[in-house]
Each structure stands twice: as C-alpha cells, then as structure tokens.
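Posting here for the record, re: beta-D-glucopyranose.
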Amino acid sequence: MHFNSLSSTALTLLVLFNTVQAKINVLSWDDAYTKAKIIVDKMSLEQKVNITTGVGWDGGLCVGNTYAISNPDFPSLCLQDAPMGIRFADNVTAGVSGVNAAASFDKSAILARGAYMGQEFYDKGINVQLGPGMNFMRSSQGGRGWESGGEDPYLTGVVAAETIKGIQSKGVIATAKHYILNDQELNRNTESSNVDSRTLHEIYLWPFARSVESGVGSVMCAYNLANGTHACEDDYLLNTVLKGELGFKGFVHSDWGATHSTVNAVNHGLDMDMPGEISYKSGTSYFGQNLTDAVNTKSIKESRTTDMAMRIVATWYKLGQDKNFPKVSINSVDRDKASYLNVQRDHKKIVRQIGAASTVLLKNSGVLPLDTKIKSIALIGSDIKANDDGINSCSDRGCSSGHLAQGWGSGTADFPYLIELCLITDCNAPLITNLINVKIQSSISDWDLEAATEAAKGVDVAFVFATANSGEEYITVDGNVGDRNNLSLWNNGDELIKAVADANKNTVVVIHSVGAVLMPWIEHANIKAVVWPGISGQESGNSLADIVTGAVNPSARLPYTIAKKESDYNVKPDPSLQVEYSEKLLMGYKWFDHAKIEPLFPFGHGMSYTSFNYSKLKIKVSKSGTKDMTVKATVTVKNTGKLDGAEVIQAYISYPEKAGSPPQQLRGFEKVFLKHGKQQKIELKFTMTELSIWDTVANAWVIPSGKFFIHVGASSRDIRQSGSFNV
Ligand code: BGC
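Prediction output follows.
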C-alpha cells in the first residue's frame, strides 16, 4: 500500500514559493505609513471621510465597498466574504472550513490554504478578504464555531496567524474577525458578553494578538456588546487594547450593521463603517455626512479622521495594492453580470490534501484502511449524495439535506462542484466503482431503516454516514437559529447508525459535522471505526476516500472535546442578554481536566494507521524569569509501525500552582512526517508569550515563578513524556 502525506515535497515547495512572495509584496508598516502620508496630506476632510465610509447595502459589486475619491486618487475598496473561499462568486474554490484547517494541526498546510485563497481573492480584484474567523467554540452548539479554530487559544492563534500570512502573501488584506467575544449566535446583536480581564487576555484576545504580530491589515469589530459596550464603540477594547497594547496599525471596520453611533464609534476607535448605512437601504449613515458634521462641530477632531484615513491608505500600500491591483470581477448583487474569470488553478489539489489531513480517525479496531481483499461495501445515509435540488440550491448553504461539506451563513462560498460519495462510486450503478475494486450496495434514505439494514447485510464493511449542521443567525435551518438546539445527529442519524450496526459486524461510522455530537451508539460491538471528516469542502468525498483506502495515513487531531453526555460541558448558548463568561479560563478540555470528567474523545485526539513512540524528553531553560526567557524541549519521536505517517506532537504546559491556571494548556505542537522505522528529534520552543499569564494587578504579562511542567504527547489525555523546570 502506498501512503503519502501533506508534508509532501509538492506542498513544501508551494509553501516556499509563498514565503518568497511574501517578502516581495509586503512593506513594513513604517514604510507604508510614509507613503500614505503623502496622499492623505492632500485629502480634504470630505475625502478622508469618504474613504472610511461604505456605499451602502447592495451599492457596489462586493458585500462591502468604500467610496473612491479623485485628486488625490484613492480607489473604492472591495471587501468580500468568506473565510473559506469567495462568497457570491463563480469559478472559485470552496475549500475546507476553518475548523478543519485547525484539525490538520499542520502549519504549512494552513499557510498554503491561506495563500491559495489569497490568490483567488487577488485574481478577482478583492482588496479585503473577510477572514479568518477567530471566535471560539465556547459552547459546542455555537453556530459559527466551524468558521474558526475550535476551543483552544493557542491552536486558534496558529490557525489565524498562518492563514493571515498566506492570504497577505498574495497582496490581499486579511481580516481578523469578529472582535471580540462573539461566540454564540443567540441574541448576537443585543447580548453583552461579560468577561474578566485575565480571561479576556489569555483566551479571547490571544488569536487577535497573534494576528497583529503576523501583520494583519484589518480587524472587524463584532455585533455583540462586550462588558456592556457595543464592540464597535468600545474605547478600552479598540483604543487601549487593540491599537495600544497589541500595537495594531491597520484599520478597524464594523461588522455589517454593527456601528451604532458616529461620535462614540469614531472617538473610540472605529475606522471604517460597513456597509455604510444605518439600516438596509435607509440611505443614512453614521459616517459620511454625519461624520463630517461631527468634525465641523468639534465633537470629533479632524486629526482623528486623518488617522482613520492613514490606517486605510497605509494598509493598502503595505499589501502592494497600489501596483496594478486587478479590477473587481465579481458581482455579489447580480451574479449574471459578473465577468467570467476562472481563478481555481489547481487549488483543488490543496483542498483534497487538507481535507484528508483534517479527517480525524476517532476510533479504529483494524477495519481501516480497507483491506485490498475485501469484495463488497455498503454506503448508507443521505450524506452520501448531494442535495437533489443542486449543490448550491440553498442560498449561503442554508439548508441541510444531502452531503455536508460547509455550514451555513456568510462564511460560505458556492461549490464549483461537490465530490460526494456517489460521485466517486456511482451509487446508481452499484457494481461500477473507482473507489476500490469492490461491489457497492447503497441506501440514501436516513429514515428507511429497512432499506439501510438490507444494504448493510452481507457486505464486508458497512459505512454509515450522518451529519450535524449549524451556521449564522440570519438563516434558520430545521428550527436551529444559527446555534444548534442540541448536540444530537441530524436527520435520524442515531437510529440509522444503530440499524446499520445491528446488521453488519464491520460497521464504520462517518460523521460530517460542524462540531461535537453525542454518540449514544459508540459502545455498539459492531462499530469498528469512527471517521470524522468535519466539513471539508468541494473535494470532501475524495479526501475521505484517500483516508479509508489508506492512500493517505490519517494524521488529524480533534480541535475540540467530544463529551460522553451534554451535561458534561460547562457552557451552552445563553438566552440572557448578560452572558457571563463565568467559566473563566476553563473552556473545553481545560474544564474537563479541572472537573476530572472523562471525555469520550479528548481535545487533540486522532489515530493513525501506524504508531509512534516518544522518548528522551530534554528541557533547556535560558534567561529564566526575564522577558527574553526561552525554554526548549526536545523529544525523540519514532514511527514504530509498519506504515509511513505523520504525528502531531503536542506540548501542554502546567503553570506553577500559585498562577491559578487550568491544569494544563496547549502551548506548542509540531506535525512531523516519518517513514516507518524512522525517528526524529523534535524541538518545541516556548517564549515569554507561551510562558506568561496575564497579571491583573500589574496589567501585564508576567512569567509566574515556581515549578512548571511540560507534558508532551499525542493528545491532551495521552501524555507520553513529562518534565519540569523552575523559574
Ligand atoms: C457577518 C460577517 C460577514 C458580514 C458581511 C455579517 O453578518 O457576521 O462575518 O463578514 O456579514 O457579509
């Protein structure tokens, strides 16, 4: 059997190419500001105001468009969703979701994903890509969790930073969104997410801080309120923290309709109003004339509008958009009027690779990869076939029938095509298959349990598919207003799985889901494997086939915790308008560790078809207790199985007891590809960022003194080596 992996030469080359590009395109902030000053100095007040103001809903070709000005000239900027591909556009790639990128735990793959998206946005003339998302799966039900990186700040921070570097390496401005505490859809415009300063810094700000460090050009402020103030007019969060503490030099723009004032918003840090109207087609704006008037009546200083314009123009220069930036060739309002431009190149290859690299093998007692000797399989469930009405029949993917490869809402792109299981196996002609040379029986109903049982009987391996979906609040699917109403599988999934497992002793469960689900059937003796592809985009079926046939050895890890029962989780969407983040630092696995609850599948878990051994953990500390402190941990990892494969080496830190931190927190990981029998020494490096906690008295990051532990292992509950050091 032949195995390959994402860490293949082709992908490495692609990444190298991107890195080189990054050096060519990106100016330093200082140089960008110097250039910006020359034209902003020539702008009148009205001109400065115009480049900060959106033209209104449906007023331009993109979901967001600013006014252009002339003499001095500055173009209209095009802002467009989505975090996983271009929304409202044709001939584009609809790749894996953000949470899948996280599940790959593969920095170079995440960078490559960012770069191909950046290339497509650039080719279509889009100045600003409205992603990546970096809100949290604070609760498993949270509707938009799949757009971001899961439940851990360190992992989400890596996904955010690598995605931004990739997007911006192609000359497109990335957006860190939604700033901040926008972690449920329920009452998203009216609730206040209330959090203490330490939790804010150690969890929710973390990915934004990593985004600023990687040079992100724009930040989108969120719909919700934070500690009682609208996120888009919060002086502390925008001015003191984002632009002060984090040193953000780009521009802040509002989420669509999240601006609630002129004077407060502008004085407190908002630089651009999107889409520029107070409400849909109202023709009025908090910016525009209202902003000019506020300056004329001295409620806002003109220097502030200069700062706003400087931030926008400097970001544009920084990304090299002054040099022949392509014309916009999408049309969000009237799709048929968009000019034809296919920007897909060979990006489907990366999508297929990341799809496989983000497919988590949760359980396997040896039935996978499929033995080349097997003669027959069954494919069961509506997920094996695309929605009969068409793959894009529901606007913004706002329905849930057929194969699930995206959630719903603004974070989606139209599929150019969708590879589901029937496409690669031909479900209507069961004897013809190019999956592998086997006979296939299928049943596409989730409700006809007799047909499912019939299909499952007598085949060597029965695959049963089920889904769970969620999305953005403006679309309700099956009674779910964005957030999921519960954590059960959709469309009769549990009953279908039980029926198939009762009928076949080699049952493999495949779950396409936006996040954790309950698995009441998990102990069924006939369920021999559980495969978790998440939501993996247009190449979904191919990525899955690569994993189950063994063409790719699984190497993904869960970016969130799957609990045994719903009540084991400590957070769910809160209907009160004051959402207290009272769990503080105990999100996800940190809660399970603290409360000593055994999860069904822990954070960081994922199996391989080979096995790995960890040894010789060594820890070297230098400049202990200072700002320049570094800790280097080395560990030797050996592929002890018979097949080549990749391992994700995870490092969890336990802080000194007096720090009052959760029992352990992910603070490093590396994915390494090893041929069978080979070993490699892996180095994990920790700096001030990873070693400190937020001290609420000093209002600063400090490295606590005392005894630290570093736990290195294959998941948060599979620690193989531990060591300690004192500060
Ligand atoms: C969403 C944003 C999106 C914007 C523009 C809002 O409803 O929250 O994520 O970028 O719309 O479509």
